[in-house]
Amino acid sequence: MQTASTEAVAQYFDEFDFCLDSMDSALSGPSMTKALNRQVEVHPNLTKTNILIKNVLILNSPEDHGPAERELTGLLGKFETAYATEPGYAEARAYLDAVCALGLPGPAASPAALDALAPNYMQAYRRVLSVLGDFGCAPLAPGAAGRAAPADADICLSVLDAIVEGHTKTKALNALSNRVVRTMCVGNDDDLACLAREMGSKRTAFMTKWVGGAQGGEWEGSQEDVYYQALIELLSNGLTAGARGLRNPWANAYARVVAALVRELGARRTPASSRVLTSFVTWESELRRTLRSAGWDENPLDLVGVWAVGDDMDLLPDYAPVAALSSGGGGGAAAAGGMLRVMLKRDGSAEIPDNGRVKGLRWRLDPGPTHLDTLRFEVRQAAGGGDALGGEEGALLSYTGYVDRGARIEARFSRRPLKMTGRLTRVVRGEQRPSTRFSMRLVERED
């Protein structure tokens, strides 16, 4: 069986899937739809996420759209040079024109242009609008002028900001906080490092302008300064960084930043950098461990049974960690439905039925700080199972799914399949290697 390299898999998993073809995978070669999905690589740091999404959400500081607009204009020419002679180019270019218009100051695609899109590209265009809308971008009416831009959530605004016109320090820090959140949700490691460097280099100028004069360094050590540096630390070290020295209201503001990240990273399909994802898994594990009470049931009866687990990236039939867990251990079964079956037993053990190449280990449910509890289970390559997980001997797959408490209660009465989504992390010799999202549903209850 072919094994996808860690580098190739990471690149593929860090992208939203808007318009990939059924033949596209981390192992397949270049294609027009891959380039179209990535919006063509025209920037050295934009090799892992979709350029239009990053362009609109995080690429430039709020006051400077020039470089972002120049990149989109150059992108159109580069795509034409590379694929003008390919079959289906006209339909692909029409879609690309419509998408790029969202990030340019001119009019959005006209109603006639959208009506003329091929059905698969119209669906892809709607996905683009949906993802932008998730981050607060108001929908642009067809043909309307303007550039799509995200709306900032209230993270640290003061009560005076609602009545005071013009800029204030809390408005400035609120805009910066939202930019940090968006970067951590859709950026790669380079984007995080770039923003951290930018904020570090602009710290003095920012604090002098918004908090206090340069004379005597009045702003140094202020709560605004501590908060600003906590955001830099968050970009550099992820959620495990913590925030020391913050007092209310800035401690509350930092808590809102963390809450926004948990909502995005824990229950959505948002791509994330390996740094963010690894820190999220570590942070969440430690946090939930402290929330368990003496009466907490780690293996509740309503979760016992057989779960069908599907990998979100079902376009990867040759990705060994997924294919090895299908009932036959081959890529065909994973490609056919992307489903493996895991039996969660009342004693806390996990079994993989009809598969001798991998063995289930333990499962447990941990309480969450919100309505989302965490179900974890692990599988490991069995002795003599060969390279079933596509990695080194002893490689382990750790599944972390998020269960809505309200959905659990509803499922007890309706008997509908309980569903959850989560993240799959590959662990080799203690090192966590984030992979992809997965979804799962309870198909056979023990009770």
From TrEMBL:
Superkingdom in the source lineage: Eukaryota
The protein's name in its UniProt record: Uncharacterized protein
Organism: Tribonema minus
